[in-house]
Each structure stands twice: as structure tokens, then as C-alpha cells.
Design goal:
Shape: globular
Number of strands: 18
Strand content: 15-25%
CATH superfamily: Chorismate synthase AroC
Largest sheet: 5 strands, antiparallel
Number of domains: 1
CATH class: Alpha Beta
CATH architecture: 4-Layer Sandwich
Length: 365
């Protein structure tokens, strides 16, 4: 009912608030026997964590993860894995001026109407800080999927604000704070510097993909692999749109070009984004998400207070001028969690299925 759990066979329950003592998650359903330590998880958390460049929030959280349960002598036990991340750099006084008013574009208004109260400190439960536990859980899923199937995940930023980012090489992604696949990111830095000086924020477009996904993952109708991917991606704070494969470009395509032709050596294209009929083709899963501008900005905006009277809002505190800058590892994690869920479902129901038709996606790779 509370909407804090993603998945069933690989169930991740998220807990905590932005300015509480800690955040974390409980993973139920991780197979036993996998080697796992904090270092396996910390690498992805470090990619997401705040305070790493001038273009993101200066809240300096180490995001050090602690494995509280579910691992014995360095191996997963098959019992629930609790991952804990302590909050160490809260500054709740910055939110005193919004106790009785609502930030436009933020969840303040809807949370109050739903629960009758709200935690204004850093957005409370609605904060993007709650994506950190999902990144931690995603790291566990990534490790198991890689060891079992050789599945890998990667992502990059393809647009920030109105600036299109050309794809040059995946090798560049880890070398800049934008996760941009380009060598020279000076145009992105200049754009963000100007945005910050203007007291404004912007959105972004992120592309993520999974390679080495087994063919046959997913279910017909309501548990389609791509449906679950979209569901998970929309669970990321500030995401307002999801595309699978060609996405909305499919509207202007013709059937002669959109349908991915099959050859003995592999598929001719991947407009489907690796999913047909809700089931994986074995090709790369290709997903793009659209992220809205950050709602907490220092420019004055019109709103109302809790009594319904007109109010002007200027948000103080430390905020990401573009939450999309740190979203790439988050989107990777959510994709990994969905693939993990469906891999376990396939193993449970169809582990003995064999067909004579070759896996042409694997043949090409």
C-alpha cells in the first residue's frame, strides 16, 4: 500500500528521509552464495553521490554503505540484505521559510493533502536523496547478473537543457561530472555556470542500456519487461517521460523501417529497444528518460501558503540546478533491478525451456 517496495522475487524496500539519521533499503530474494562486500556497492554510490563538482548540490554526503544483514563470511545467505547509508551533512534550518508555503513543482502540496502533514526538511521522503538506496540495491543486482549471464549496464547524458550532447565514445562518460559521452564538456560547464548565476534550473535526457540480457525475459500483457522498466524509471524523482528503443520517433517511422529485420547473424536494427511483446529479444535494452527542471530554485515564484493565501517563494539551501547530472547511475540501477526481477522469474518458471532456434542476438555479439 505504501509504495516503498519495487519488485517481488527481488524485492527492494526503500526507507528513510532526506534529513533523517539514515536512509537505506532491504533486499529480499537475492540468491545465496554470491560474494558480496561494501566495496562492490560503494563504487556505484560514489558515482551518484552529491558534492562532487560545482554543478551539483554542495551537500557533502560520503554515502558510505554498511551491509547490516544477509551476508555471512563474505557471501549472500539468501536472507534479507539490509543496506544502511547514514546522513551526515543535513542543514535543516535552510527550510524554515517554507514551513507554511509550497514550492511550485515540488511535492509539498500533494504530500500535505495526502498525509495531512509533511516533512519540509530537504523534501523528506520525496527527496532525490532516496535514490541512493536504489543505486546500492542496483549494484547487488548488477553483480549477480554479470556473474550469471555476463549482463552489463551503462548510461550517459544525451541532453541538458536545450543543449544536445553528441555521442563520441563511451570512454568519455567516466571522465566528466555530466556522464557525457564527449571529450570536451566546456559547453556544458558554461551552460551550467550561466544557469546557476541566473538562479534557475534545467532538465536533462539520460540514456541507459543493458547488454548481454538473456532472450525470453518478461511476461505478456501487464508484466511486460518494457512496462516494468517504464514503471521503475517513473519511480525516479523528477522523471516525466520514458522511451524504449525508438520511442516517440516510432510515430513518424514506417513499418518497413521500424520493424527490426532478422538475419541468421542477428537483428538488422533495434528500434524495439530489445523488447518485443513484452519479452526480451537478447539485444541491448535501450531506454531514455526525460528529467524535469529542479523545483527548488532561488528565483522568486508565486505560490500559496497553507491557508490558501498568495505567497512568494524563494528556496534556500543546497540543491542540484539539474538533477539529471547525477541521474545516470540511478537509471542504470533501476534498469538492473527490473532485469534482475525478470531473470529470477524466468529461472523459476521456465528454467528447463529449450528451443532449436538460435539466439541470433548472442551470435552477433
Amino acid at each position: 500500500m505504501a509504495g516503498s517496495t519495487l519488485g517481488n522475487l527481488f524485492a527492494v524496500t526503500n526507507f528513510g528521509e532526506s534529513h533523517g539519521p539514515a536512509i537505506g533499503c532491504v533486499i529480499d530474494g537475492c540468491p545465496p552464495g554470491m560474494l558480496l562486500c561494501e566495496a562492490d556497492i560503494q563504487a556505484d554510490l560514489d558515482r551518484r553521490r552529491p558534492g562532487t563538482s560545482r554543478h551539483v548540490t554542495q551537500r557533502n554526503e560520503p554515502d558510505a554503505v554498511e551491509i547490516v544483514s544477509g551476508v555471512y563470511q563474505g557471501k549472500t545467505t539468501g536472507t534479507p540484505i539490509c543496506l544502511l547509508i547514514k546522513n551526515t551533512d543535513q542543514r535543516s534550518k535552510d527550510y524554515g521559510n517554507i514551513l507554511e508555503t509550497f514550492r511550485p513543482g515540488h511535492a509539498d502540496y500533494t504530500y500535505l493533502h495526502k498525509y495531512g502533514l509533511r516533512d519540509p526538511r530537504g523534501g523528506g521522503r520525496s527527496s532525490a536523496r532516496l535514490t541512493a538506496p536504489m543505486v546500492a540495491a542496483g549494484a547487488v543486482a548488477k553483480k549477480w547478473l554479470f556473474e550469471k549471464y555476463g549482463t552489463t549496464f551503462r548510461g550517459c547524458m544525451t541532453q541538458i537543457g536545450d543543449v544536445q550532447i553528441p555521442f563520441e565514445s563511451w570512454d568519455h562518460v567516466a571522465n566528466n561530472p555530466f556522464f557525457a559521452p564527449m571529450a570536451d564538456v566546456s559547453v556544458l560547464e558554461d551552460f551550467m555556470d550561466a544557469l546557476r548565476k541566473a538562479g534557475d534550473s534545467c532538465g536533462a535526457r539520460i540514456r541507459v542500456m543493458a547488454s548481454g540480457v538473456p532472450v525470453g525475459l518478461g511476461e505478456p500483457l501487464f508484466d511486460k519487461l518494457d512496462a516494468d522498466i517504464a514503471f521503475a524509471m517513473m519511480g525516479i524523482n523528477a522523471v516525466k517521460g520514458v522511451e524504449i528503443g525508438a520511442g516517440f520517433a516510432s510515430v513518424s517511422q514506417r513499418g518497413t523501417t521500424h520493424g527490426d529485420g532478422l538475419l541468421p547473424t542477428g537483428f538488422m536494427s533495434n528500434n524495439a529497444g530489445g523488447v518485443l511483446g513484452g519479452i526480451s529479444t537478447g539485444q541491448d535494452l535501450e531506454v531514455s528518460i526525460a528529467i524535469k527542471p529542479t523545483s527548488s530554485i532561488i528565483s522568486p515564484r508565486q505560490s500559496i501558503d497553507t491557508s490558501g493565501q498568495p505567497s512568494e517563494v524563494i528556496t534556500k539551501g543546497r540543491h542540484d540546478p539539474c538533477v539529471g547530472i547525477r541521474a545516470t547511475p540511478i537509471a542504470e540501477a533501476m534498469l538492473a533491478l527490473v532485469v534482475m526481477e525478470h531473470a529470477l522469474r524466468q529461472r523459476a518458471q521456465n528454467a528447463d525451456v529449450q528451443v532449436a532456434t538460435p539466439d541470433i542476438a548472442r551470435q552477433r555479439s
